[in-house]
Design goal:
The complex is a heterodimer of chains A (341) and B (310). Chain A has 341 residues and is mainly alpha-helical. Helices cover 65% and strands 2% of the residues of chain A. The two termini of chain A are 32 Å apart. The chains are: A mainly alpha (341), B mainly alpha (310).
């Protein structure tokens, strides 16, 4: 609201002439931000992404140290301790995780019945293996497969798309014909066929996931390369005598970094899903190796009587997938220049 | 356009041919034999069995015969189900899969569209966050986890619906359809939300508001129709997701469908059936992607596929 009295008090002495300094118009007010600072500024505003990052770090931490926390080995079988429900010290007094389980339709404390003094935090499976240890070992394997597969996808995709887009002409033609045919083949079919002919194991799963996984990345990188390589700054650099290698690493890749990272973030949950899917239908990892998929498969088989065997790996895989998707969404909002105002 | 369609059809056949060839030769390298207790047979018996299934001939000849039959639409004879042709085997199993797929698709997209619209119209409110979170859950939680949880709580704990099998009329199809519908639901909800928010900010919506159109009219008549067009682009991934989902969901609910057949023929090394199912799935997905590409060009004139250039 305007106050008339105040307005009257203003005298010419209150004003000062501003001189326009040519240097000032060129001055950059804020410190210039690196790519990562800029990304972090954008990402910081996204609460869901930040929470997901914390959760994800916790899960990764547990995957690294979890198996050593309670002194049970993931592959040590103790049939006397088979099919024990979860029992956690401290929480047991509340009535949850107190070792009560169903036996022949009645609820009994299986720990007392079987005279087990130890605690199995997440219970044991039919062979008496500690599920807490196995869960984190499985998480570690699943994460390992996902990260390696995503990294390979990224490297092949960037190289293929980059070469195809940058050199263009005949090279591009041939490379794109190959992609056009490969893209028509349903991923799932290739993955299953590949895994069937290889010895089951981590390598087989990674190869199967990556064999067509890189195509999406290569197409994005090719499109980006085509977009940037005809821009003036690339022309300027070339005129100044920069070699292809320098143009690619110095000018093209930094501009594409955002979209490459976003795409990789979405490849990871995809890889986790495919690993779990393959293990669930029984052609992924083979026992006694554990992954989230095999654990869910084990849990599914005994779901009726020991639902906790299914519950914990199901929670971990869901949390992981949600976290990766939310971080991916957050990064896309933060990094994608199209989304910026 | 005609040239583009022609080119795409040629590519489709090349792709199918490559898949058929690749799967044929991959089958040959598979460990294990399709004939159970093969190792217990003596040489004469082996020769008889091999002759019966045509696997006594050299590989290239087998390949040529397979391709010739394939061109006629004959997928061969199952190794496991005695004397049954793969065509018959798959034909009997097509119906449950189609019913489940169609129900999941219809239910998923309709609920997804409604959720997405709700989120966009109530942008940045509780409803928006709620449905966005729901969509993230749907995208993130693997279908087999969701299916097993549904089966555990609804069927086996509360006895509301059958645990599995395909013998209880529509009731059998509810849980598997729900499990399959989560993917399409979440994807279309997310997609419609983004599109609607963009459309709602456009000038012609402002004009409609200025002219006094009520909220309902704006939402359905103006915004929704424009937001719907791009949804076609996600139909391809949706169909692929349904096929992936059907493999496990049919397995979990013991539905006698194509997906269940595929998984069990992998387990029994039934080469002819594996190849037949692979080709069926591939053909389905290739055709869906093709239709989507064509539809997209037809519906949205801004996206004109370049005729002969590409």
């Amino acid at each position: 609201m305007r106050n008339e009295n105040e307005e009257e008090k203003l005298t010419p002495e209150d004003f000062e002439r501003v001189t326009i300094d040519a240097h000032h118009s060129e001055r950059i007010e804020k410190p210039s931000l690196s790519f990562w600072q800029d990304a972090w500024l954008g990402l910081r505003k996204n609460k869901a992404a930040i929470v997901s990052m914390v959760v994800l770090l916790l899960v990764i931490l547990m995957a690294l140290i979890g198996p050593y926390l309670n002194g049970h080995a993931g592959d040590s079988q103790n049939l006397r301790h088979a099919n024990l429900p979860p029992k956690i010290p401290g929480i047991e007094a509340t009535g949850f995780f107190d070792g009560d389980g169903k036996l022949a339709g009645k609820t009994v404390n299986l720990y007392e019945m079987k005279k087990v003094d130890e605690y199995y935090w997440f219970g044991t499976d039919g062979l008496g293996r500690d599920l807490f240890t196995r869960l984190w070992e499985g998480t570690r394997v699943s994460l390992f497969i996902a990260f390696v597969a995503a990294a390979i996808d990224m490297v092949i995709g960037v190289a293929y798309g980059g070469i195809s887009g940058y050199f263009g002409g005949r090279t591009d033609d041939i490379m794109q014909r190959v992609v056009e045919i490969l893209i028509g083949i349903p991923t799932l079919i290739v993955v299953i066929l590949m895994i069937m002919i290889m010895d089951p194991g981590i390598t087989a799963i990674i190869v199967a996931i990556t064999i067509t996984g890189w195509i999406g990345m290569s197409r994005i990188v090719r499109a980006q390369t085509l977009k940037y390589k005809s821009r003036e700054f690339v022309l300027a650099s070339r005129t100044l005598g920069a070699k292809d290698g320098k143009i690619i690493t110095k000018h093209l890749l930094p501009n594409m970094l955002g979209i490459i990272i976003i795409n990789t973030m979405f490849t990871i949950p995809n890889a986790i899903f495919f690993e779990a899917f393959l293990s669930f239908i029984g052609i992924g990892l083979q026992p006694p190796a554990a992954s989230l998929g095999t654990l869910i498969n084990d849990g599914y088989k005994v779901m009726e009587n020991q639902p906790y065997v299914l519950l914990f790996p199901a929670i971990v895989i869901s949390v992981l997938m949600i976290a990766f998707n939310l971080i991916g969404d957050g990064l896309r909002d933060a990094l994608d220049p199209k989304m910026k105002d | 356009m005609v040239k583009y369609i022609g080119k795409r059809i040629v590519y489709m056949f090349i792709t199918l041919f490559l898949i058929a060839t690749a799967s044929f030769f991959l089958m040959q390298t598979l460990p294990g034999s399709p004939i159970a207790s093969y190792n217990k047979l003596n040489d004469t018996q082996k020769a008889i069995v091999e002759k019966k299934y045509g696997i006594d001939k050299p590989k290239p000849v087998q390949y040529a015969i397979y391709m010739k039959n394939l061109a006629k639409g004959d997928l061969g004879t199952s190794f496991v189900f005695k004397g049954k042709s793969v065509n018959d085997l798959l034909a009997t199993r097509l119906k449950p899969s189609l019913i489940l797929g169609a129900q999941a698709m219809v239910f998923g997209t309709i609920v997804g569209i409604l959720l997405g619209m709700l989120a966009a119209l109530k942008h940045n409110t509780f409803w928006d966050y709620g449905s966005t979170f729901f969509a993230i859950l749907g995208i993130s939680i693997p279908s087999f986890v969701f299916a097993s949880l549904l089966q555990y709580w609804i069927a086996s704990e509360w006895h509301l619906l059958p645990v599995g099998l395909w013998n209880d009329g529509w009731k059998s199809s509810v849980l598997p359809s729900l499990a399959l519908a989560m993917g399409p639901l979440a994807l279309s909800a997310r997609f419609i939300r983004t599109e609607m928010i963009e459309v709602l900010n456009s000038d012609y919506i402002m004009l409609a508001k200025a002219k006094g159109a009520n909220g309902f009219e704006i939402a359905f008549k103006h915004a929704f129709r424009n937001a719907l067009i791009p949804l076609i682009t996600v139909l391809g991934p949706l169909a692929a997701g349904l096929v992936t989902g059907s493999l496990v969901v049919e397995q979990i609910f013991a539905i006698p469908g194509i997906g269940e057949q595929f998984v069990s023929s992998i387990m029994t090394n039934d080469h002819a059936t594996i190849m037949g199912t692979t080709l069926l799935f591939s053909a389905f997905l290739i055709v869906v992607i093709f239709i989507v590409d064509i539809l997209y060009g037809v519906i949205d004139p801004r996206i004109r596929v370049s005729g002969g250039k590409g």
